[in-house]
Amino acid sequence: MASNSTWRAQAEAKRQSILDAIPEKWRLATPVPSATEVRDVTGSYIQQFLSKREIEITESDAVDIAAQTTTGRWSAVEVTEAFCHRAALAHQLVSCLHEVFFDAAIEDAKKLDAYFAEHKKAVGPLHGLPVSLKDQFHIKGIDTTMGYVGWIGTFQGEKEDPRFGTKESELVRELRNLGAVLYCKTSVPTTLMAGETVNNIIGYTWNPKNRLLSSGGSSGGEGALMALRGSPAGFGTDIGGSIRIPAGFNHLYGLRPSSGRMPYEGAANSMDGQSTVLSVIGPLAPTARSLTLLFKAVLSQQPWYHDPLVLELPWRDAIVEETRSLIEQAKAGNSTLAFAIMHWNGVDRVHPPIARGLKLVEQALQKMGHRVIPWNPPSHTTADQLLFKTFFMDGGVDIKHHFGLSGEPKASQVLIVEDGIELSVSQLAELNVAKREYQKQYLDYWNSTAELTGTGRPVDGIFCPIAPHAAIIPNQFGAVGYTGFVNVLDYPSVSIPVTFADKTIDVRPTNPSAALEEHIEWNYDADTYDGAPVGVQFVGRRLQEEKILTLTEYLGEEISRAVGAK
Amino acid sequence: MASNSTWRAQAEAKRQSILDAIPEKWRLATPVPSATEVRDVTGSYIQQFLSKREIEITESDAVDIAAQTTTGRWSAVEVTEAFCHRAALAHQLVSCLHEVFFDAAIEDAKKLDAYFAEHKKAVGPLHGLPVSLKDQFHIKGIDTTMGYVGWIGTFQGEKEDPRFGTKESELVRELRNLGAVLYCKTSVPTTLMAGETVNNIIGYTWNPKNRLLSSGGSSGGEGALMALRGSPAGFGTDIGGSIRIPAGFNHLYGLRPSSGRMPYEGAANSMDGQSTVLSVIGPLAPTARSLTLLFKAVLSQQPWYHDPLVLELPWRDAIVEETRSLIEQAKAGNSTLAFAIMHWNGVDRVHPPIARGLKLVEQALQKMGHRVIPWNPPSHTTADQLLFKTFFMDGGVDIKHHFGLSGEPKASQVLIVEDGIELSVSQLAELNVAKREYQKQYLDYWNSTAELTGTGRPVDGIFCPIAPHAAIIPNQFGAVGYTGFVNVLDYPSVSIPVTFADKTIDVRPTNPSAALEEHIEWNYDADTYDGAPVGVQFVGRRLQEEKILTLTEYLGEEISRAVGAK
């Protein structure tokens, strides 16, 4: 174990090397104002450092960008440089990057432009699209630290491993095949097991919309970078909410797919080999259709022939068509779509902005003509217990080893303790059975809603909070149950942005209705939360990602329109 | 723990109650001759106890029977009675049943006939088809013992469990929906972890084709019953070969699907909650197309809405069509199908009948015009180690508990010891990672054959032994590696019957070629094995059950024709 001074020096050197990799021309000339001075550094704040053309490019969504870059109208180099510049600014404003490799990205972009010039066609559907990655994915020549000081200059903590500097994760290989440009890796909380993003290398990743608050976690760097439009789309991972929380905290869309759809092969992880609740990869982006673009593009690479845990389930257009016809029917005034809303889970009481966000969604759904029913599922306390037993199953053996490589301390936000009790294999088998029984109960409950919807089908999806609160005050994230039950069930779930916390509205009502009182947590600071993004979660049935993404494109737009019209 | 005399008495009473449930008219009047007198009790031997009409019905395959019963040409009652009679005889000849409930079956058949009379249509695609089930499936009013004396009159060993006598497994519910008639449950080795079928209740399940030998295990009762045509089709389970071994040992077809296709929900099992290598349910039958009938019928019930571990993968006709067009092309003399043959796995040397069986398959494939290449995969020693670490992970805790309920002793054939060392969760995680890495290597190797086939595609399937030997001499089954590697990889695999051991041919050649010597085990008793069925295994890629079943229907027929023509 290295001494205290050693890990501090290593972390400091690494932190500096990230800043040093930013070209001089893109460095901020003056110190960033404090959060109390300037809470929100998105929009016009960051735009002041960018050209009009850079703003045009970086504020286009992935679908629009790909439409330009795959047809040669925009050069890959120009687009890549714009995002590199904006990502560099984002990092200086909220500390959201672990690795920057802009030179390599621009070299790759040049090759893509040359390919297009020669063949008059794109390499693939993501030709020239910059894609950011959470710092779990291995890229040739680039560190993967996952926030661990002990991983700097090693392969996942192994100093002599020949894969150091040479290995690429399966997703990276596929993204390159698709024509995507890789240019940065985003920050994570060390261990990944936290709803905020903090580590001993780059410190704390702040929320760009309200720098008093967290960007969420564990894909917090993705969330913060995208809130500042330093990335048009990227990939995070989710074992308890790590995609949906930062998506929700940063007014983004983020998909947690069912396990077995996206290739995790060759990516770093915590507690690798834990197979009760699998961490999964999913896309985050400012628009819903960007999630579809990325998800579908990866599936076109047939990842099941390269990752033994991926299921042979290509993108299913038939499900998209079927869902679209339900949407068309609804738009024509004859909706047979039905949704459930879970205003609270019976465990963690929600803050006023979250209660309001769900209410807005409920009103929007009703206005669209959909049937909305309440959601009274099997106990979510059980889901919480199953999730935490899973997280704690190795008693902290894995994280203790990796913190021990450098001697650095664990952040208080990490949900796992280093000296817990390790389960026996028999106890684990009991846990697996209990989890399966809970999944069966939930499945049966979902089926049972066919009797309530009036559509002849069970509900098409459920809406619920992402967390009891909007983007959280540092060190206060704890209740992972709103997202975690989805991981226990292995359902697809998307974060959909809805509104922002507003201290003038989100106050304790003088005469709260009994229904509202039931789920409102009054220990809430309206002033600090002011401006924090409020998202909701939209949950579907296992492996029905095509349906959920298609519905999200429609519902997200309609909700946004309905909320905006208020 | 009950005393020695208690468990013996309980087992004896249960054994007698099975015989007592056979109607007087179907009991054998004279003792069964010894195995040395009459080895083979299939065919004409069992036919002597049956009417011509009973023989016609019971020697039709499931597809032909369903064609008659779903159209009202044959009554469900007549078909059910014929199979009940033949199953009763089979049990008296080789001891292959754990439960008989012929009266309930005939009552169910009467209801099906009444339904057809009233509605002029079938309840479902299996209307009136008798289906046998391995004794892991719960049926209302019927015991499930899985061979354990301590489970008699309980729910999986729990005396006060309200599910006793009331619970039905998900597969049972679906089979009833489909119109199948349930009439018996077949024998298993206690714990299911053995390649022979033996327990303290019904003793040893003998091979009907050669009663000096084993029927295989753990779905040995299914195998023996079907060899005697006491069942047209049934379901077993497979965690290391438990469907394919008894199918191979009894000249049957048997499919081990990938995990996640057939519903295991609500069935009894050993080491429930062990999730490194999952036991899976699959059909066995005398014809390949019967496997397809059952598999497709179960999928039509959308089991993914009732079993949280089933994947939403309906029967995919598109894959069937694609495969059929490859077959048509081959039949027209332009095959682009390519197969690999693994004559031995580098671990367990095979007996002469097995080597000959594979040679016959190779010749048949070549005659059909397909490309045949050798199979030089990643080490199968690794697969063996991964499988046994998985089987042994709980140190025997589970089986010790269940044997302890009655105090009965464990049979020597059971692969697991009762006092082993239990893994820690961290060790299990390492095992899961090692397994995934092996799966990845195998996947890459399979992909790499695209360079060898000349078809532009990797091989379409691989042929290999099911075991080093044909149906085994009691107490000699040990090498589970030929089937077990498939469970580690989670690939679909079918047993295909090929030929029979023949003491006049399967002898040590006077001048063995070097290639033959490499994989032939000379410690082999040609006389005892004479007449034992010889099958081969046909292995496909994960979740490609539709392709494998479609190819099996074609290949099984062609191989049988080619072998018969010799």
Beta-strand content estimate of chain A: 5-15%
Based on secondary structure, the structural category of chain A is alpha/beta
Please describe the biggest sheet of chain A, giving its number of strands, its sense, and whether it closes into a barrel.
Answer: 11 strands, mixed
Assembly state of the chains shown: homodimer
The number of E-state strands of chain A comes to 13
Largest interface: A-B, 46 and 46 residues
CATH topology of the largest domain in chain A: Amidase signature (AS) enzymes
- Spatial ordering of strands, largest sheet of chain A: 1-3-2-6-8-7-12-13-11-9-10
CATH-level-2 architecture of the largest domain in chain A? Alpha-Beta Complex
Shape of chain A: globular
Q: Which regions of chain A contain 5 or more consecutive residues with pLDDT less than 50?
A: none
Indicate the mean pLDDT of chain A.
96
Active site (chains A, B): 134, 218, 242
Protein name (chains A, B): amidase
Organism (chains A, B): Penicillium canariense
Pfam family, one (chains A, B): Amidase
Descriptive notes:
Chains A, B: It holds the Pfam family Amidase. Chains A, B: GO terms for molecular function: amidase activity. Chains A, B: Substrate binds at residues 192, 218, 239-242. The structure is a homodimer of 566-residue chains. Chain A folds into 2 domains: 4-28 and 38-305, Amidase signature (AS) enzymes, CATH 3.90.1300.10; 320-564, Amidase signature (AS) enzymes. Helices cover 40% and strands 11% of the residues of chain A. The first copy, chain A, contains 20 helices and 13 strands. The first copy, chain A, has helices at residues 4-20, 44-47, 52-58, 62-69, 76-94, 102-119, 170-178, 220-227, 244-249, 288-299, 317-331, 352-367, 380-391, 397-404, 425-448, 450-453, 481-489, 514-519, 526-529, 545-564; strands at residues 97-100, 130-134, 181-186, 198-199, 203-204, 234-238, 253-256, 280-285, 338-341, 371-374, 461-465, 493-500, 533-539. In chain A, the strands form 2 sheets. An 11-stranded mixed β-sheet of chain A has the order 1-3-2-6-8-7-12-13-11-9-10, sandwiched between helices. A two-stranded antiparallel sheet of chain A has the order 4-5. In chain A, helix 5 (76-94) runs antiparallel to helix 6, helix 11 (317-331) runs parallel beside helix 20 (545-564) and helix 13 (380-391) packs across helix 17 (481-489). The longest helix of chain A is centred in the C-terminal third of the chain and has 24 residues, at 425-448. The radius of gyration of chain A is 22 Å and the shape is globular. At the A-B interface, helix 15 of A face helix 15 of B.
